Structure formats: C-alpha cells, structure tokens
C-alpha cells in the first residue's frame, strides 16, 4: 500500500539507495528479528516501560541502512518527511470513500475460499475506483510472467490465462519497480502493451496499476482500466486502490495458506488411512496364519485317524481312535470359543462370582503342569513351579474360567521362555484392597520390541505359523476385571509378569 511503504522503499524511490542495498538491509532486519526470542510469559508493563524510556527513535531499517554506509541521516529524514506527506494525503481522503473500501475489504476477508476471494476482489476493485474493467494478474515465480488470473469487463473471457512477458506493459513495469503507476492517456506512454487490446477489441484509454505485495514479496498487480465517467484516474484513486491491494494481498495469502494446510491435512489423513489399512491386513494375516496353524494340526489328527479306522478291524482300537477324533473336535470348538472370548470388550458383561484366588491359582498350576510335561516338544528338560501364596485367602469377584485360563497362559509364556528348563515362581498377596499375582522365571527374557508387542493378537517370536491368542486374551481378561498387567524383563535376565 502507498501509505504503508517502508522507509527503505521511499529511499529507493528517491534514488538514495539501490534495490540491492534495500534487499540487504531487509535481510539483516529479518535476521535481527529471528534472533529475538519472546519471554515465556510476556511482562507487558516492563516492556512498555523500557520502550517509553528508549531514546533511539530512528526506525530499525533506516538505522541498518545508515550502518551499512549506503545512506545518510539527512536522506533518512527526507524520506521520513515524505512518508508523513503520504499520511497527509491519506487523511485528506473522503471518509465515505475510505469507509467503503474498509467495508469491501472486510467482506473479502470473510472467506478463505480462493475462488470466492478472487471474484470479490475484482468486483469491489471496480466499485472502489469506478472503473469499467479490471484485471488481477498474479506473478509466475518460475518465469517472471504476469498471468491474467481474474479479468473483468468487456471481452474479459478472452483474457483468462493470457501471459505478459517480464517487464512488458504498464503492469510489467509496476511488478518490476514495485510501485503504482497512473497513466491518464496510454496512447502517449510507450510502456503500454497494446497486444491485449488487439485480443479483446476493447480500447484502453487510461490505466491505474498497483502492486500486490506481502511484506517485501511481490505476488502480482491489480490493474483498473478506464473510468466509467470518461475522466482520468486520480491520486486519490491510487491511494484507495493501494489500500485495497494491501488488504487483497493478505487475503490471497491467507487463502493460499488455508489451501496448503487443507491439502496437507488431506494427505496426512490419506496416509493414516493407508497405514491403518496396512495394519488391519497385517493383523488379519497374523490371525489367519495362527488359526490355520491350530486347525491344520487338528484336521491332520482327525484325517489321520479316519484313515486308520478305514483299515482297522479291531473294534477297541477303532473306539480309541474315535475318542481321539472326538477330543480333537472338542478342541476345535474350544479354539472358536477362545476367538469369541477375544472379541469381548472391557464393558462386556462378566459371569461374575466370588472366587478364592489362591485356590484358582492352584487349579491353574495343576491343570497346566501335565499339559506342558506331556507335550512332545517339551520333553528333555525340567520345569519346576514354586508357589508362595498369601496366608489369608484373597477373594476376588469375576469369571473363574477366564481368570484360570489367563493364569495358565502366563505359565505357558514362562515355559516357552525356558527352552533349557528352569523354575517358575508364583506369588500372591494383597495390598490396598487389591489382589496381586506375580510370576517370575529364569528364562531368556525379552527385548523392548518384543515386550511392546507381547499382547498383540497372534504375535510370536517363533515364526508366523506359531502365533496365538494366549497373551492377548490374558490382557483382555485382566482389563475386563478392572486390573492391569506389568512386565519387567530384559534379554538374558529374569522376567517377571505381574
């Protein structure tokens, strides 16, 4: 905006400094601001007091230019007087016209939809200056060309996306010099780019063109053509359009930032959805492998015994094989039941009853011991369970079947961790009306990565075909009973599950 020109820009207009010097000074100013860090809690009274006592009133950019040796204090004073004169021009504007501009800018600021923003900009640019046509041209940062983005007026449909080469025409001069230009009669100005009129068949008589900038960055120009009443544009029109263009720049950048953030949000959302889908497929793959492993074993037993029955003549042996098939089939049904249990949530209704906890732990030890001792893959090593149970029988409320199975799963987790055998210690005690069960072993321990995933469904360190629901069901059962699970372990050290 004309009124809000930096002193450096005014010094450049007056020929006291070059644009290169100005850019260097602005860079130093930005570095100075970057180094300033606001206190965590802003002490407003202290900051205001310090500012009131400050004696150096020289503008920061002006002082930088003086320190660089490219301007003098006298030249800076002249630039400041010119800035004050611009303020006087601003004060002389008719309040009705200024009020209209402020009103239009507030309407433009009411939306972040870029298409709506651009439409409103051009609609109100004509109203502000009483022009018969206008064009918003945005700067292509790669080529330096000005692109007709939103033209209005007669034959405007022929101008969309027309490009003006860098520095060509009135608009090109404004973009290159970053200051407004008012041409009462374009036929007398050699900078006029007549090719546009040839495209539209529209005759341009007078032009007012202002730069659109954000801080020190050019983003385009705003050009109005031919006053509706046939007279030339005035400096007052230039002031109003500069004011308008300043607001327009802010709105365009806000709309752009909003669009970029929205696009980034959509990209991140899509990435999250893809990641979630991958995790679902991974979990499904693990689950499928685990279930397939269990059922393949069972089906192999059933099919093998059926084959033997077909060739067996001894009725007692046939009956024994039928019993094996029956037991295996019941085991398959149990696997389905475990899947159903796993699908429960913490809020699912429990089949609650009063349970003597020590007795429950004893049952779990008694049931699990022959199961792993008789298992073929466990032969050849010895595991001993040592229990130290609370003297007074702890009592809990819950589902005894689920809790018993959870404890059995804990025991088997420890057995798996001791391929060479060892001891499992089980302790029960009470504290603050809570009942605790601690299980420790002298097995191989776990890495942090394994520890983090031990409760994942079908997770295993023994290969994808060995996964199961045991530890995942354990965690779900304890959570449904309003409890928690704590694991302390490290590779090569005793692990403890509590």
Spatial order of strands in the largest sheet: 3-2-1-6-5-4
Low-confidence stretches: 44-58, 374-379, 463-467
CATH architecture of the domain at 353-497: 2-Layer Sandwich
- Annotation, overall tally of beta strands: 13
What does this structure look like?
The chain is of the alpha+beta class and 498 residues long. Among the domains are: 1-36 and 46-92, no CATH class; 271-340, Orthogonal Bundle (Helix Hairpins); 353-497, Histidine kinase-like ATPase, C-terminal domain (Heat Shock Protein 90, 2-Layer Sandwich). The protein is 53% helix and 15% strand. The protein is built from 15 helices and 13 strands. The chain has helices spanning 7-13, 19-35, 44-53, 60-68, 73-92, 95-108, 114-129, 169-177, 195-200, 235-311, 315-342, 357-373, 400-416, 448-453, 470-480, and strands spanning 131-139, 146-152, 163-164, 181-183, 207-214, 217-227, 353-356, 383-388, 395-398, 422-431, 434-441, 487-488, 495-497. Strands 3-2-1-6-5-4 form a six-stranded antiparallel sheet, sandwiched between helices. β5 and β6 form a beta hairpin. α6 (95-108) packs parallel to α10 and α10 packs antiparallel against α11 (315-342). The longest helix has 77 residues, at 235-311. It is elongated and about 120 Å long. The chain starts with 6 loop residues before the first helix and ends with a strand. Residues 44-58, 374-379 and 463-467 have low confidence and may be disordered.
């Amino acid at each position: 905006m004309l009124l809000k020109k930096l002193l450096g820009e005014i010094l450049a207009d007056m020929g006291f400094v070059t644009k290169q010097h100005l850019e260097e000074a602005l860079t130093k100013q930005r570095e100075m601001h970057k180094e300033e860090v606001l206190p965590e809690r802003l002490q407003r009274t202290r900051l205001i007091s310090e500012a009131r006592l400050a004696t150096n009133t020289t503008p920061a950019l002006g002082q930088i230019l003086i320190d660089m040796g490219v301007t003098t204090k006298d030249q800076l004073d002249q630039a400041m007087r010119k800035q004050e004169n611009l303020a006087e021009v601003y004060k002389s504007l008719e309040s009705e016209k200024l009020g209209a501009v402020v009103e239009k800018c507030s309407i433009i600021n009411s939306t972040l939809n870029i298409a709506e923003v651009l439409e409103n900009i051009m609609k109100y640019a004509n109203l502000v200056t009483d022009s018969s046509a206008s064009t918003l041209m945005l700067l292509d940062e790669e080529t330096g060309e000005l692109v007709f983005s939103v033209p209005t007026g007669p034959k405007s449909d022929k101008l969309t996306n027309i490009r003006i080469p860098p520095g060509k025409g009135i608009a090109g001069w404004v973009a290159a010099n970053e200051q407004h230009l008012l041409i009462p009669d374009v036929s007398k100005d050699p900078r006029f780019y007549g090719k546009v009129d040839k495209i539209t068949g529209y005759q341009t008589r007078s032009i007012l063109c202002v730069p659109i900038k954000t801080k020190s960055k050019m983003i385009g120009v705003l050009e109005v053509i031919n006053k509706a009443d046939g007279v030339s544009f005035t400096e007052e029109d230039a002031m109003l359009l500069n004011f308008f263009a300043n607001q327009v720049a802010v709105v365009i950048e806000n709309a752009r930032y909003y669009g970029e953030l929205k696009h980034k949000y959509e990209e991140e959302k899509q990435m999250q959805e893809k990641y979630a889908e991958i995790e679902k497929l991974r979990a499904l793959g693990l689950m499928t492998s685990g279930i397939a492993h269990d059922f393949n074993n069972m089906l192999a037993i059933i099919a093998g015994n059926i084959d033997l029955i077909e060739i067996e003549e001894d009725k007692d042996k046939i009956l024994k094989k039928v019993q094996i098939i029956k037991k295996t089939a019941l085991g398959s049904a149990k696997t389905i039941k475990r899947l159903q249990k796993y699908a429960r949530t913490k809020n699912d209704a429990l089949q609650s009853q009063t349970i003597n906890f020590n007795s429950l732990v004893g049952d779990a030890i008694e049931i699990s011991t022959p199961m792993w001792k008789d298992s073929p893959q466990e032969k050849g090593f010895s595991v001993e369970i040592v229990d130290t149970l609370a003297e007074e029988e702890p009592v809990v409320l819950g589902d005894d079947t689920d809790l018993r199975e959870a404890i059995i799963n804990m025991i088997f987790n420890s057995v798996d961790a001791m391929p060479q055998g060892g001891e499992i210690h089980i302790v029960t005690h009470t504290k603050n009306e809570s009942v605790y069960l601690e299980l420790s072993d002298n097995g191989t321990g776990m890495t942090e990565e394994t520890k983090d995933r031990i409760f994942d469904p079908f997770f295993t360190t023994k290969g994808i075909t060995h996964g199961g629901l045991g530890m995942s069901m354990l965690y779900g059962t304890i959570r449904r009973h309003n409890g928690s699970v704590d694991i302390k372990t490290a590779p090569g050290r005793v692990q403890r599950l509590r």
